[in-house]
């Protein structure tokens, strides 16, 4: 359980997340993921990173129960900072990152894949931000990298999800495959990238980030300010306390 790194092929680092039962990460889990991604990117032998997950789904966001156990704001601050670091670690990884997405990809999962360089998804994968149902805000920055602006807004306001096939139609998912073929398909794409010159692929990653029209770190940090406001106002606790208790009245 936790975050592990392996090497399935030459030039490829496979970073795997495993936090049963739904890959909802604790504060420490987000920092561990950030450290693993940064370490893989610094390895001169690595030319591409595959980010994958074990279990029922790719990522269910932050561990809500950890927040509910905290009587202050330490867990909230920790989760915000941890997510910020993990999302940035994907974006700033010195080599391209391929996300292999299975099952649900929610909340913080969108932050991860939205900052990835390419996405391979299983045919049962779904993507969405249930933040408004969890007393939080954020990651619209990253959802906007996956779908057009008005669809992003509608998904955000309704907390609905989009399928892998829908994202493939929008061009943000590279390939959709049966779940049993997901890992091999992601590694196959990573291997094609890893055959490029190691120095040149790092220059390419830096160059593409440099021409990005949106500063994802600053944009996401701006969103996080509204999460703090929601918590200070008390509305976040009121909404979050309904988590797992059915529909709100």
UniProtKB/TrEMBL annotation:
Gene3D superfamilies the record matches: 2-enoyl-CoA Hydratase, Chain A, domain 1
Key words, A-Z: Lipid metabolism, Lyase
An MF annotation (GO) of this entry: enoyl-CoA hydratase activity
InterPro entries xrefs: ClpP/crotonase-like_dom_sf, Enoyl-CoA_hydra/iso
Protein origin, superkingdom: Bacteria
The protein's Enzyme Commission number: 4.2.1.17
Similarity comment: family membership: Belongs to the enoyl-CoA hydratase/isomerase family.
Name of this chain's protein: Enoyl-CoA hydratase
């Amino acid at each position: 359980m936790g975050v592990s790194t392996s090497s399935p092929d030459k030039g490829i680092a496979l970073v795997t997340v495993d936090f049963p039962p739904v890959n909802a990460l604790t504060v420490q889990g987000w920092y561990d993921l950030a450290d693993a991604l940064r370490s893989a990117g610094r390895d001169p032998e690595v030319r591409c990173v595959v980010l994958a997950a074990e279990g029922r789904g790719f990522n269910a966001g932050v561990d809500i129960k950890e927040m509910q156990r905290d009587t202050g704001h330490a867990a909230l601050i920790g989760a915000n900072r941890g997510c910020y670091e993990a999302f940035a670690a994907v974006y700033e990884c010195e080599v391209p990152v391929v996300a292999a997405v299975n099952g649900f990809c929610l909340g913080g999962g969108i932050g991860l894949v939205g900052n990835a360089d390419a996405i391979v998804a299983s045919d049962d994968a779904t993507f969405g931000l249930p933040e408004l149902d969890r007393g939080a805000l954020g990651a619209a920055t990253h959802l906007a990298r996956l779908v057009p602006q008005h669809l992003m807004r509608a998904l955000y306001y309704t907390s609905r999800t989009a399928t892998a096939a829908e994202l493939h139609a929008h061009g943000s998912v590279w390939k959709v495959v049966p779940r049993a073929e997901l890992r091999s398909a992601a590694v196959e794409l990573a291997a094609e990238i890893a055959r490029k010159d190691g120095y040149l692929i790092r220059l390419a990653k830096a160059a593409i980030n440099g021409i990005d029209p949106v500063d994802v770190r600053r944009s996401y940090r701006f969103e996080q300010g509204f999460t703090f406001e929601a918590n200070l106002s008390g509305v976040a606790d009121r909404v979050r306390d309904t988590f797992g208790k059915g529909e709100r009245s």
